[in-house]
Each structure stands twice: as C-alpha cells, then as structure tokens.
Backbone:
C-alpha cells in the first residue's frame, strides 16, 4: 500500500471506505473529490506511517520522496509552487484519525509562508494586510502546536499577549484592522518568542515547516490527553492518525469571501432544514473563536446567491450519498465555493430519532438501517428531563450517577421536612449521609435524592431507580451536618432551603436552579420503537415493584415484568413495623403472627401489578435482602421501635447487633431466609396465589412466575419450590380455581451457573442476576469498589465498569455455561436477565448472542433495551448461547 | 438372590464379602462358620427384604416360607424344635446393617419362650430359676423394643419399676436371686403392662413373636434417631438392615457358663495383648449393663482353661483372617465356647498407628495397606492434647471449633491481664466478645482463646490457628461483660479467675480443670509417616507466618511453606503503630515514610523464615486484608491512636468510618491494595529480596515464591508482577547478587479460575485459595453462615460443610477449569492449594485427582495431609485434572 494518497481535479487515490487508512477526514475529502464536489486538492499521509514514525521518530526517505511527488502533483493541480516567492503554494496540515478524537493536534493553516513567499501571497491576493495577517496566523499556530508554546497558566499564551498589546496600542478590535507595519512587527515578535523559548530559529524553509508539522501531528497521537481519551472511549492505541495536506483556500480574501459550517438538518431537533452559520472575510478558526458573531446560514442566500445554491446542492448530494445527516465545513474564496470537510453530524437524541425516522420516509434508509442509526444509550435523554446540554455550568460536587434524570429543588436534610415542604408546594432535594427505609416517605416526595455514602446499589440508589427518580449517591466530598441543616463541600456551605440542581445521569450537583429540558416522546420515537420491535428477537421486560411502575413499564413497551422485588413493598409506613416484628420474633409462631399482618398488604400489591400486566408474565422474586436491612439504625428510631415492641432499648440493640453481618452480601439472605423460615415463603406464595385467583376472577389474564433468589445448590431450589407448590395447591383448593404459574430461580452465584443442569431439573426458568453474579465472580462489592474501581478503569485494568457492562470473559463465561447446561437438561427452560445489565446496550448484545429469551431492566430503560435488542438482531442471529 | 441365608455346622450361604446383603454382623457370622469357628447356627434375612418390607409393611408369603424352611434347618442343626414345649428351640433376633449404626433396634434374646416352652427350657437346663428369668428377660425386651414401651421420662421404664419393687420386697440385689414364684409373677405383670398399654395380648405363639421381632427390626431402620444418624454420617438411606436369627446359647446357665467381649489388641494403645472382660453366669447384656463388675479376660485362663485357649486361638485366627484388630463377643455355655460376633475394632489414633505399624512387622499387612488403615482425621488427636475421651463431661457452651486441641486456664477478659496473670505463672484463657490486633500480646500468652462473635476466619480463629493454639470462636450463647469481669451462659455465671477447659477440636467449653491427654508422637507414628511419604505423589507444605511456625512445620514434615501471610507480621506491638500510620497517611509520601519503618521488621521476619526453610520453597503472599482490619475499634484505643498521630479523635473516627466497608470480603483488599498503593508492594518485595540476599550470603538455599492475592483479572497480576520484578532487579543490583524466584498468584475468585489461561501467561504458579473461592463461588460468608449453614448440613441441603471439605461440584469445577486452562497455557505452571481445605483428607483426595503439585495446610495438619496424600495415591493415580 502506498503511504500517501492524492486527491484533486475530480480524482482521488482513496475513498470513503478507506477511513482506516486515511482517517475520517482524509477519506471523506477523497470521496467528495470523486463525487465532483469542489474540494481544494491535497494528499493524505496514511495512518500506517503514524506507527512507523512513532517507533523510529523519523520520516523515512521513501516517505519524503512520496511527499515530494505528491507536492509536485499538488503544484500541478493548483498552478502554484511550494516555496515559490512569486506564486507560492500554501497548504493546511491537519490530523485525522479513523475515529473522531479530540485532544490531538488539529490544524496548521497557511503553511509555506516566510518572508519571501508572503510577498508572493500579497501579489496573488492583491491584499498585503491579508497576506501579512495570514503569515502572522501561521507563525502563531506553528508556535503553539508544533513548538508547543502555550505559556504557563499564570502568564497565558505569549502570542496572544503580544497581539493584545498591539491591538491596545493600535486601538483596534481585530487584528486585521492593524496596519501592515504592525502586523509585520507582530510576526517578528512571534518568531523571537519561538527562538527565545526553544533555542531554535523559526523555520523559514517551507519543506522544514511541512515535515515539522507532519511530525507534530503524528506525535500528538501520544499526548496524555489523547491517550486518556482513547482509554476512556476504548479506542485502540494502534489505530494511529493520518495527516492531511491540502492546498489553502481563503475565506478571508475580502468581502467576496467567507467561511462557514453547516448541518444538512437541525442537529437539535432533526428537522429537515439547512442549518448553520457563516462569516464573511474570515477563516474557519474565526467562526469557532467567537470573536465575531456569525450570521445564520440563510443570509448567505442574499450575500452569495450562487455559492449558496451550490452549497445547498452539495449538502443534499452529500446527505444522499452518505445516507446520513452531514456536518460540513466550507469556504468561499472570492465567490467560489470549496468544501473543506464533511462528516456524519453529531446530534441530540431527539434529532437522531427524527432523522432516522424521516430518512425512512424519504427512502434514504430502510427501517432496519434507521433502527441501527440511533445510539440506544442516547435515548436516556428523551426519557428524563436533562440539564440544557448547550450550556456549561460550574459543578458543585460529583457523586455516582445512581438514577438518571435531572431535578431542581430546595435542600432538606430530613424526610419529615421533605414531606412538609412538599405539602407547602416547594420542590425539595433530600440530602442525607445515607438513607434507610425510614426515609421512604421523604424520598417519595423529593424531586431528587443525594447521599454522601453508599454505592450504586445502596438503599437510596435502588429505591430511586425503582421510582424513576433522580439520585446522586456516594457523593463523598459532601460533609453533611444533618441536625444543623447544612452541608459543606470544599469551601462552599449549602444550607437548608438553598436551591440545588441534581443531575443523576452524570452524578453532578450544581448550585442554584438550572434550566431543565424535557425532550418528550415524539411520534417519530414511537414509530422507530415499533420498527425495532419488529426486528428484535429478545423480549424486553421491566423491573417494577409497584402497580405504578408496572403501568409506566407497560407504557414504555415492556412485555412483562422480569423482576418484581417484594422487599421494597415492606419499606413503607406501617408495613415496616410488621416486618420488624417478624424479624425480631423469637420463634416461628411470632413470625407467623407478624407475617399474617403483611399478607393482605402484599396480596393487594400483587393484585395491582397483575391488573397492570394483564396478559403478560410477572416474575416475582421472594424476599431477598438480609433481614437487618429492615431494622432501624438511628438512635431515636431504635428507641421508638423498642417502645412499639415492648422491649428495652438494650435488648433491641443487642438483637440488631446479633443480626448484623460482616459481609451481608454473602450472608443470611435470599432463599436462605425462606429455607430457615419457611413461613416467609409460605406467606409470600399465598399472597401471590390469592392475588392471582382474585385477578383471574376479574377476567384478568395472569401469568405469575415465582422466582427463588440466591440459589447456590439445586437442593435449595427443590426445598423452596416444594413450599411454593404446596402453598399454591392449598390456595387453589380454597379458591376453587387453578392458575398456571412457573417456579424458577435467579442465577446469581457462580455455583448456580456451574451446576445449572441440576438446578434446571427443578427450575422452569432462569433469570441471571448479573449484579450479584458480577459481585461474586469478581469478588467485588459494588458498594465498596469506589476506592479502586475508578482507578482500574482509568488505567485500563478493566476495559469497562463490570457493573455497567457484562464482563464477558468472566461473568459471561458463567452465563454461557449456565444457559448450555440448563437448556440441555430442560429444553423448555425460559432464560432471561434481570440485573441492571439488562438495560445496557452492549450487555443486551451479549444476551442476544447467548440466546436468552428476554432482558429485564428498569422501566425507564425499556425503550433503550428495545432498540439495543433490535440492533443486536441486525448484527447477527441468535446463536443459542455459543 | 435368596432372601434368607443360612449358616451352621461349618457351612454358610454367605461370607465376609456379602456385608452389603447380610449386614456386617451376618456376614461375619457366616464367615466364622465357614472358618470352622464355633458359632451357634442361624440365618440372616437380607437387607433387600428391608426395602420391600418398608414399602409394603408386610412380610411376603414367599419370605415367610423361606423363614420357615430356614427355621427347619435350624431345628435340624440344633436338634430342638421352635415352640416345642419339651425341647424348645430359642433364638436371638438382632439387626445388622452393612455399616455399624447405633440408634436401631439391637437385640431380642430368648425368643420362642411362652408359658409352655419355659417348662421345656427348665427341663433342658435343669434350672427353673434360669428358665423363668430368661422368660422374664424375653418379655421385658420384647415389651421394650417391639411394643415400644419405655415409659415417660417422669415414670421411667415400667418393667424396671416392677423389678425394683420385687427386689425390694424380696430384699435381693439381683433378679436371679429371686424365687421362682416371684419370677413367674414378674413375667405375668410384664404381660399385663403390655396388654394395658397396647390393648393387645402379649403373643404366646413363637411364630408371631418371631415375625413381630423381624418387623420391628426392619421398622427401626426409619426411626428418627437412625435417620438422624445416617444424615450426619452420610450413610445412604437405601442400604437397609438385615435381621439375624440365631440359636440361643446361654452364658447364664450356671457358674460353668459365662460371656464376654474382647479385643485382639489393646484398643487404647494398640499394644499386642489380648484385652477384654467377662462375667460368669451372665448374658451379654449384663456385661454392658454394668450392674456387676466384669473380670479381666486374663482370669478366664484359670476359670475356663480350655475355653480360654480356644478363645485365644480363635482370636488369633480371626485377626490373621481379617488382617485387622478384632472386637469379639463370645459366650461359654457349660464350658463350651461360642463366638457371637466379630468385627474390626474401633481404636484410638495412637492404637490405629501402632496396630498398622506392628502388622507390617508381623507380615500381616504391606506398608501400603498399613498406610491405608489409619484415618488421617484421627491423627489430630496425636498432635494436640485432648480432653480424656474415656470420660464424659457436662458442656458449658459450644461454639465453633476454630483451632484444635484442648487447654485449661483461668478466665481473663483483657489482653494486659492475660500477660499479667501469665507472668505470675497462671495459665489463662482469654475470653473476648471478639479480638482485634490489639489483643495479640494477650493471645500469645493465653492457653486458649474464646470469643462470642466471629467465625472460622475471624481474627481470633486465624491468629490462633497460626499459633497452633486452641480456640473456640463465635460462642454465641456467651453474654460477656468484659468490664465487669464476668460472662453468663444460660444460668451460669463465670467470673474472672474461674477455671475453664476449652476444647478447640469440638468447640466445647467445660467448667473447671479437666484432665488432658497428650498422646505424643511415637516411633511407630514416624515410621508410618515415612511409609506414607514414600507413597504419596502430592507434596505437602505448611501455612506458616513466623520462623517458629516454620520450624514446627518442618518438624511435622512440611516440604516448604505454601502460604506465609505477611499481614500477621503487622499485628504485634509497635508494628501495628507504623501500619496504622501507613493506612491513615493522606498521600503516597506519608505511606512511604511509614512503610520505611516496617521494612526492616519484615525483612527480619522473612530472614528467619528463610533460615528455617533452608532448601525448601517459601511462598509469601503480599498484603491481603482490607486495611481497616488494622485499625482500632475500642474507644480507648482510638483515643490513644489519635494522640499518637496528633489528630483529633473526631478526625480519626471519620477516617476509620470512611475506610469501613459494607462487604470487606469483597472490598479494597488483596492486589487491589498493591495496585492503588504500589509503594506497599514495593516495600514488601524489597523486604523479601533483601532478606533472600542476606540468607543467600549466609549459605542458605532460598526459594522465594511471591504470591499476589485476589487476582480477578490478568492485568492485575501483570501490574503487580511488574512492580515485584522491578524491585527485585533493583535489590539484586544493590546487593550485587541474584536469587532465583517465582511470581504467581492466588486463584481465589471465580473469575480468576475462569480466565486462568490469560493469568498463566504471567503467573509461574497458582495457589488455590479455597477459603475465599468457596465464599465467592457459593456467595457464602464464612463468618455469617452460622445462622443457616448448620441447618443446611443437618437437613442435607449441603452434604458437607463446604468450608471443611471442597465442594467438588461447584468450587471443584472451577479448580478443574483453572488447572486445565493454566497448564495448557504454561506447561511448567506449579499448582497448589493453600486454603484450609489443604488439610482436609477428602479435599486432599480431590487435589490429588486434579493433579495438583502440592497442598499446604497449618503445621499441625501436615502429618494428616501426608497420610491423606498417600491414601489418595493408593486409591488411584493422578489424572492431571479429569
């Protein structure tokens, strides 16, 4: 393969499909050239050269020869000569990696200028000011990016200081208004800065300038910023960047010139309208710099009618050619249009949906292609209000993004106060060191919840996600003084009643009331989701614990409930009292008495859920968390509970103490509770089956699936399944009816996965609890990982946060094993996933590959999962777990 | 197969190898008959019949026909007839399962007696008193075991009450001294008791008596006691019991008769001396009942010279035949010897070793057979003092058997007090709610440690095992009031200074000073161990953290150290201060300063260990536990530490709080520490390599193996291995020498096992940390399992305690996977195990099957492991992990 690819005069050595070799920018310049679109000629040095250079730290003779030859071709195409004092060829040098990547060297313009060629440029342009300003710009850019002179944070950019001084002295606003002598002096000062700071003279030889710039582009591939960016975005280090050397065209040659950027559609809304801005007599950097207010693109129609028509035509051509919304850069040089870049445009989620939708209507895309075009993760924006993303806001503190969306409210530190303020019509944000079940009523009315402690599975996080409510958890920098009604972070003190804005999608807290944007669900969104449903193989269910959540989930297109956590039903109001009585009872009799009070409450909950899910399956997980999670921790709560129970505080404290575990995650929880206290399983099964019978009597089509948590050994499931089935029989006889139901288990421990064949002898379904499976497989407590997991991800020890995206090499291997063993034993085995990975697009792809029947995720992620599931189908066919 | 097997007159339908069909007792009666040994004739109803009976609850006609036929044969052999009033045949009916199993119906003697046949017995024996007493015994036994009449606990056995009354009235000590009219009246009273309590007449028909007894034997297979026993001892329920029906012989026919039990060698010491007891004019039950003092067997030589010679001869014949020490029962009827039973004798560990050893010398066994004869678990008795097992003692409380052995001491509640008392020459037992590193000095001087909280891996347990010191942990029934110097358990209060005896092998506490037995290590023991070493394939290493432990381990035959836990080195005295400084330092600089103080201490520790282990490998694990384990918990300790560090108590508390984890087991520990704080790994590596260089300079042959803990991802190991190797290079240059060493990792997380191929690219060895691997694979915290694990084992959900014996289906599958993946990647990979399973015989068998290179266990279990490893070799050949 050649190292250098030429493009110009309607011909190009490469094309759009060569982006791996030419980088995105180079590939598209070549493609545009081939399409007959006016692009200044140039050439691209391939990404392969980048590796060679970074190893040897020199440009090979062969390469230099190729560059010379390409330069000769460029001279021929432009009719100018590189370094010719009379008619100089000037070029821009730009980096361009296969994937868009900030943090690398961007652009050097006007390369080839020196004291001699600047005279030639004056002659070509007939504008000495323009020529001198171009020269000034070149030296400044080169000084910045090739010599790396940016100044210390204290002094600032030394080039800018010289400029500011000159403008002050000349009493002008813009450099171009300076006189020629001043411009010349500035350029000389710039060169002096370079020689003083580097000990090297600024290169006058255009060839030296060129090789210096090329080397600088390649070197910028390995700057810290670039390396960090690649690490965070999982971009392989060996991609490398290409270098584009393009003949200069000028938007700053006078009022008949200009430059601009445009989108073929509105990138905010997706509306099919040509959208952009331009400046007359300016270079691209001026548009970006914001020193002059650019004009709306529509005004070009009057100022440059011909060029505008040509631009519209080109934009339309490019969109049709690439079958996607384009983001283009152009320059008009003395009335003539040149395209400098085109690429697929970044867009908001709303725009992404609308563009994909419209392009199907326009015949540009098939439905499948449209479904493939929208990034599922982006949909989160549509489902929750967000902070206006077009504005930057100072960040007060950052915690874990525990439950997405944004909210504004007045700070309160106490659940009762939250209720009180809410009743007075004030939106509140509940800020606590950590939350407990006693805070539930406050959490329910708060706009958002913020905690200083606890992780992504802390009480606050889990409850907030269940309610689809914004939450930032584990915001460690907060020093909270709850009784005093204030918290401190760094130097700032925030008091009760102060306004804050919480962003649960990023984990950021902001002072004050920021504006929120609610993009809502459009017609186009629903249409796209329908197409996705037509494509996907995986079914999508929701994790929902209440009738309200269940309805929400159904609205979002859930095809059933994959996880109904019964424990959350016990957190509210009086329920928690009965629950505590049950836990603290000294024998089965006492437990039964307390459970009897809970039975009608649970039955009512289940009935509501069955009604919401008429015709769809509902997977109900029996009590899972360690019992002490239901017990109070605060002193006053303990006193109160002791009074209620009629025991001394000491005795209660002792009981709480005894129930406390060293590692509750691995303790007395899940089916271990039901096995040691079968009366709990009996009560819960009875509530489920009684509710099912009542619903059935109302004409509702119920499909309960009873799920046993934390099975590690097949005999645990046998034990619990027997209790459930015996209870079902008893209820059916009492109610004189029968309901079809399934009994299955979570697969959330390595041992369960490894012995899935034996478990499948009893289980009618498996549901992978990938949260706990990840915790146990990696020996990694999600709540405690904060001190090292970020470091692991930053330094690339882990590719991804394993709690966000399934660790396919470890956890995935167990899932694979379990699916194979389980299905081999029981061909009718239903298999799903209900861990939070069920809402993560990458993990959904994996679930599709494993041949799972469904994924289940929080209601607000259901659309994301539907789209991701459809994309997974498009990428390949289900392989039933290979 | 027939249902009934006859034996008599030197011929038998079965033999010793048929114990599965005939039960142990029946098989050996048949075998003795075949050997020409005098055994009363009889027949055995096979175990197969037991199943049939338990299903149908009736004896089939075919079976009854077979029994009749066998009875006819028995009549022929004895010349008597069943039910014949003139010359009645009487039989005993006894159960006999394939494995010895208490809790089932044992024996009915004299079956066939009724008001008519008793006259015949009088005629046969010429002794009416004997006949009437036999009749009385029969009705009493039958009433007890067939009719199940035992009386309530309040009233006691109603038959015994009648007897006691009669003896009182007759003013005699023994029933046989009663007159014939009285004996007859007693028997009639017995029959009345039966008819009053059951509503059924006592059966006079001998055939009814016989079938009733047979049914009772079969039914006793399913009594609660028998079922519980089988569950605990993992005996399959479907074995069933056989029934032995044997012609009666009488040791109570007068002074020329007698009965006894004997061992062919001394079951306590193993000495080759005929050992046993006998009673004249008695039946077997009298020997057991203890109402008369039996005579030493040697006195038989005078009383029954002929029978005694015959008995010695028979005993010798049986021992040679079975090639094992026998436990025999015999009866002398009017001078004629009959053998009633023979079986392999139960024996102490010391006896087991000596018998196995001696029998090789005697040519009875090969060395291999001898090695196979000793139960490795039993050796524990030899290695620790134990409470005299021949005496029963009331139990004060029971906790977890956290570290074996027994000890006696005065109760203290505080480490300083322990030291003080110890200095005054008082042995002490340190009793604490739980221990912390601050208690170390007290633990070091205590005879034993008792805690109310914490499990088998709690601080107390781990430290005690490391020191080979007796410990009972998690003794939940203890209410400890440390400051008041007392603890309460049930009603009993134990105060400071009271004597208690602690049994760390059973977990029992006893009040007072019990006598301890120290069996010591004999010549024979060492010889047996040598033979074992010659047979075993697995190497046996020890887990040892100090030079003293290392020496102990070497004494016990360890072939290296498989696990040296460096954290224990930080618990003592000033070290913990520097450790705390390190932990609480706010930056790497502060940590380095504190670590610099620890460096010379660690180096010295390692040097001592290298010296102890000259020529053998030493695997050193880098810091593993979460850092907060090193921080104080008690208020006064926190105050003291705050003073030392020059911070406020509030700040220190906050720091401790921040370091506290929800699930420390899955938290910031293991290599995660070394990755976030590389300076720790650097210090520890430096200490190891500097010590190795010094030892090398002393002419010691050092083989350090540096082990990285808690690897879950191969990149963690790469990271830490690089730090270790860089440090090694630095030290080698400084010290101007080089040491060969290995770098490897613990495999203690499921993910590590599942990705062992990638890990083996870097690792030079694997060591399975089966404690943590079990915790994570089963999702089971060893410290918290106390509330449900015992229930799981009792009810058979788990076959074994997975922390004692490797869970082969789950954890074992991961080990298998890891060994295969690892060795496939790296053929030279050394693989061992260092979890506590490394000292468990069943687990050692598994390790052998997996083809591991070595097991490592606590020093005191090294001999057990050597023996178990040899037995594993004898059972089959290493299959390299199939």
Residues:
């Amino acid at each position: 393969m050649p190292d250098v690819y030429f493009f110009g005069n309607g011909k190009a050595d490469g094309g759009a499909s060569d982006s791996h070799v030419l980088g995105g920018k180079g590939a598209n310049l070549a493609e545009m050239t081939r399409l007959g679109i006016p692009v200044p000629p140039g050439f691209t040095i391939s990404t392969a050269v980048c590796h060679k250079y970074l190893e040897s730290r020199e440009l090979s003779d062969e390469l230099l020869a190729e560059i010379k030859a390409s330069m000769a071709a460029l001279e021929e195409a432009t009719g100018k000569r590189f370094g010719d004092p009379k008619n100089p060829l000037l070029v821009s040098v730009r980096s361009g990696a296969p994937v868009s990547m900030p943090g690398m060297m961007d652009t050097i313009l006007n390369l080839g200028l020196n004291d001699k060629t600047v005279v030639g440029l004056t002659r070509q342009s007939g504008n000495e000011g323009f020529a001198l300003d171009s020269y000034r710009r070149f030296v400044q850019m080169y000084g910045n990016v090739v010599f790396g002179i940016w100044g210390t944070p204290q002094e600032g950019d030394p080039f800018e200081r010289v400029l500011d001084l000159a403008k002050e002295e000349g009493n002008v606003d813009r450099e171009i208004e300076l006189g020629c002598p001043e411009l010349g002096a500035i350029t000389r000062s710039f060169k002096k800065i370079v020689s003083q700071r580097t000990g090297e003279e600024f290169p006058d030889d255009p060839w030296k300038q060129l090789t210096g710039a090329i080397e600088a582009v390649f070197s910028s591939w390995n700057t810290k910023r670039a390396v960090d960016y690649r690490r965070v975005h999982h971009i392989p280090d060996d991609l490398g960047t290409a270098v584009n050397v393009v003949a200069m065209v000028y938007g700053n040659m006078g009022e008949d010139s200009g430059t601009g950027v445009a989108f073929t559609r509105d990138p905010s809304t997706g509306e099919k309208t040509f959208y952009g801005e331009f400046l007359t007599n300016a270079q691209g950097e001026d548009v970006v710099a914001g020193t002059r207010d650019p004009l709306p693109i529509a005004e070009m129609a009057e100022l440059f009618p011909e060029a505008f028509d040509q631009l519209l035509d080109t934009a339309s051509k490019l969109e049709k050619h690439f079958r996607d919304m384009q983001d283009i850069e152009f320059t008009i040089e003395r009335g003539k249009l040149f395209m400098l870049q085109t690429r697929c445009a970044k867009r908001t989620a709303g725009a992404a949906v609308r563009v994909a939708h419209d392009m199907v209507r326009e015949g540009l895309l098939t439905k499948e292609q449209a479904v493939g075009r929208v990034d599922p993760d982006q949909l989160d924006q549509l489902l929750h209000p967000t902070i206006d993303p077009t504005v930057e806001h100072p960040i007060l503190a950052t915690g874990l993004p525990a439950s997405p969306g944004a909210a504004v409210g007045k700070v309160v530190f106490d659940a009762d106060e939250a209720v009180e303020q809410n009743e007075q019509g004030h939106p509140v944000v509940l800020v606590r060191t950590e939350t407990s079940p006693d805070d539930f009523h406050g959490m329910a009315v708060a706009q958002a919840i913020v905690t200083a402690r606890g992780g992504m599975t802390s009480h606050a996080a889990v409850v907030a996600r269940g309610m689809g409510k914004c939450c930032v958890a584990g915001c460690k920098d907060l020093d909270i003084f709850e009784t005093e009604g204030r918290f401190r972070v760094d130097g700032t003190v925030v008091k009760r009643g102060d306004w804050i804005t919480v962003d649960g999608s990023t984990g950021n807290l902001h002072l004050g009331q920021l504006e929120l944007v609610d993009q809502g669900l459009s017609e186009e969104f629903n249409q796209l989701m329908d197409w996705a449903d037509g494509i996907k193989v995986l079914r999508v269910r929701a994790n929902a614990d209440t009738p309200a959540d269940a309805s929400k989930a159904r609205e979002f297109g859930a095809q059933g409930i994959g996880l109904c956590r019964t424990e959350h039903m016990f957190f509210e109001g009086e329920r928690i009292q009965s629950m505590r009585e049950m836990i603290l009872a000294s024998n089965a009799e006492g437990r039964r008495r307390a459970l009897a009070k809970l039975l009608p409450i649970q039955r009512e909950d289940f009935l509501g859920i069955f009604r919401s899910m008429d015709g769809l399956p509902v997977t109900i997980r029996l009590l899972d968390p360690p019992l002490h999670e239901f017990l109070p921790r605060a002193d006053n709560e303990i006193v109160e509970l002791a009074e209620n129970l009629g025991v001394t505080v000491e005795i209660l404290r002792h009981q709480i103490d005894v129930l406390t575990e060293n590692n509750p995650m691995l303790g007395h929880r899940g089916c271990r509770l039901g096995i040691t206290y079968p009366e709990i399983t009996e009560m819960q099964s009875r509530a489920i089956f009684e509710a099912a019978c009542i619903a059935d009597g109302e004409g509702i089509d119920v499909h309960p699936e009873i799920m046993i948590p934390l099975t590690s050994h097949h005999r645990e499931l046998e034990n619990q399944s027997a209790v459930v089935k015996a209870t079902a029989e008893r209820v059916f006889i009492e109610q004189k009816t029968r309901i079809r139901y399934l009994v299955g288990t979570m697969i959330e421990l390595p041992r369960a996965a490894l012995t899935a064949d034996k478990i499948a002898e009893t289980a009618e379904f498996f549901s992978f609890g990938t949260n706990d499976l990840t915790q146990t497989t990696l020996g990694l407590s999600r709540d405690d990982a904060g001190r090292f997991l970020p470091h692991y991800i930053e330094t690339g020890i882990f590719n991804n946060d394993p709690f966000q995206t399934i660790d396919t090499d470890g956890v995935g291997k167990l899932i694979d094993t379990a699916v194979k063993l389980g299905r081999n034993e029981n061909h009718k085995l239903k298999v799903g996933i209900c861990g939070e990975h069920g809402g993560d697009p990458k993990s959904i792809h994996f679930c599709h590959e494993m041949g799972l029947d469904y994924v289940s995720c929080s209601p607000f992620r259901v659309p994301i999962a539907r789209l991701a599931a459809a994309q997974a189908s498009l990428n390949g066919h289900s392989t039933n777990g290979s």
In short: Residues 588-612 of chain A form the longest helix (25 residues). Residues 877-882 of chain A have pLDDT under 50 and may be disordered.
